[in-house]
């Protein structure tokens, strides 16, 4: 990587990610590394211009307070040692200011004046770097990618197409639990527009048969995940000369998996649950990026905006929004009502404002009146939440006319539905998804 770097050492602060993002907002690349990194390991990183030692309340391992090696202070790098929360520390540290604007000023002084770093962290440079690194790693070999159509896998695919073209083999498995027209959009963008080497597998009936009468949410997840791996493996066995497996691992995956020991960070690719005896070498070109940076990368690569800013979507797809045992009529009710919600939120300008919005159809019916006769049909539940880190979430206060329009369309356009509800439950106590 050609960009200058500021390294943040993890001493248990809950603010590490926020500090890393603020440094990147200044145009300088930053990474979080474990507290016990050695001087030799640090020297192997590219273009390190300075170190931020960020302490906090959580810097205990087995009851023993942790600190960085004293050798790091003598390694020749500019060091800023700071506390964000109250702590006791062997080495005295300054405290962060109270506001984000003040913190950013402190960082600006350290990054540019003390470290003399160059603000050359941007998506154009990132893409150029990753294209060069991928070509060097892969050579003339082939790479296999499970292309779900989600943001991360779509951006990985676009970047690898730019780097190695037809050496990338994409497999898109339609498990029948996709949003409306989602598989069609994947085929249109990647096969028809980007000329990708794309294998499309319609396994919808296979998945629905496996899910018949499975009502427990965790069991549904296991069935969907296991069957997906089986389908993917079956397709992979039909191919020859595949040496690499591409993944959409992003930086929060690494940070959230824990940085308290160097070994955890170095095995970050196992965050996705890959077997230890994996026969492929991994290609993970996005593992430097936060989610908003992944989207910016997608725009830089020329992907359609509606694909790049697509709503977060659970791995099991609509399977966890069709509550209880999945039936075709309720699955279609989820799919069609979700499409109406997406369309009306876009018309109202809420598609960029609200972090996540979707519909849920439970496995019970209620009495109603449709076409002047008694009906006994399903309710549709609308959910719209805002969050920064998905650990907590607040409810979007949607204007009444918008909710009425959505309700009217769902009741008139979606079969087997006679009631619409709006979920007002924040996280906690509720979770974002229902299952």
Automatic annotation (TrEMBL):
It comes from Dethiobacter alkaliphilus AHT 1. Signal peptide: none annotated. Pfam families: GATase (PF00117), GMP_synt_C (PF00958), NAD_synthase (PF02540). CDD domains: GMP_synthase_C (cd01997). InterPro entries: Class_I_gatase-like, GATASE, GMP_synth_C, GMPS_ATP_PPase_dom, NAD/GMP_synthase, Rossmann-like_a/b/a_fold. The keyword Thylakoid does not apply. PANTHER family: GMP SYNTHASE [GLUTAMINE-HYDROLYZING], GMP SYNTHASE-RELATED. ATP binds at residues 148-154. It is an enzyme of class 6 (ligase). This is GMP synthase (glutamine-hydrolyzing). Pathway: Purine metabolism; GMP biosynthesis; GMP from XMP (L-Gln route): step 1/1. Keywords: ATP-binding, Glutamine amidotransferase, GMP biosynthesis, Ligase, Nucleotide-binding, Purine biosynthesis. Catalyzes the synthesis of GMP from XMP. GO terms for molecular function: ATP binding; GMP synthase activity. Residues 121-310 form the GMPS ATP-PPase domain. One of its GO terms (cellular component) is cytosol. Its EC number is 6.3.5.2. It comes from the Bacteria.
């Amino acid at each position: 990587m050609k960009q200058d770097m500021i390294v943040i050492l993890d001493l248990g602060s809950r603010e590490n990610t926020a500090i890393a993002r603020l440094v990147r907002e200044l145009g300088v690349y930053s990474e979080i590394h474990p507290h016990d990194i050695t001087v030799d390991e640090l020297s192997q990183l590219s273009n390190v211009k300075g170190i931020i030692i960020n302490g906090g309340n959580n810097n205990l391992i087995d009851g023993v307070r942790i600190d960085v090696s004293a050798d790091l202070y003598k390694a020749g790098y500019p060091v800023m040692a700071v506390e964000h929360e109250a702590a006791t520390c062997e080495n005295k540290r300054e405290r962060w200011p109270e506001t984000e604007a003040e913190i950013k000023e402190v960082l600006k002084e350290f990054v540019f004046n003390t470290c003399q770093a160059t603000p050359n962290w941007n998506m154009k440079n990132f893409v150029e770097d990753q294209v060069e690194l991928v070509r060097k790693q892969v050579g003339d070999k082939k790479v296999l990618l499970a292309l779900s159509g989600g943001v991360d896998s779509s951006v990985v695919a676009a970047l690898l197409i730019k780097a190695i073209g037809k050496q990338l083999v994409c497999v898109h498995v339609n498990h029948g639990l996709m949003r409306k027209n989602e598989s069609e959009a994947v085929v249109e963008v990647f096969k028809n527009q980007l000329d990708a080497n794309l294998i499309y597998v319609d396994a919808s009936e296979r998945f629905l048969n496996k899910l018949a009468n499975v009502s427990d949410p965790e069991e549904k997840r296991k069935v969907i995940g296991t069957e997906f791996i089986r389908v993917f493996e079956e397709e992979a066995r039909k191919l020859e000369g595949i040496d690499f497996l591409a993944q959409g691992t992003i930086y929060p995956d690494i940070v959230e998996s824990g940085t308290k020991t160097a070994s955890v960070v170095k095995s970050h690719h196992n965050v996705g649950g890959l077997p230890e005896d994996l026969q492929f070498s991994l290609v993970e070109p996005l593992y430097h990026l936060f989610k908003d940076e992944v989207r910016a990368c997608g725009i830089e690569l020329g992907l359609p905006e509606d694909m790049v800013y697509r709503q977060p979507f659970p791995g099991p797809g609509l399977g966890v929004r069709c509550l209880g045992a999945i039936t075709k009529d309720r699955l279609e009710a989820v799919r069609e009502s979700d499409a109406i919600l997406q369309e009306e939120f876009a018309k109202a300008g809420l598609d960029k404002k609200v972090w996540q919005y979707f519909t849920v159809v439970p496995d019970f019916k209620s009495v109603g009146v449709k076409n002047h006769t008694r009906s006994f049909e399903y309710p549709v539940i609308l959910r719209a939440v805002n969050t920064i880190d998905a650990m907590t979430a607040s409810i979007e206060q949607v204007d009444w006319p918008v909710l009425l329009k959505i309700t009217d369309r769902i009741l008139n356009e979606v079969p087997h539905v006679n009631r619409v509800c709006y979920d007002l439950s924040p996280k906690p106590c509720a979770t974002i998804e229902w299952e």
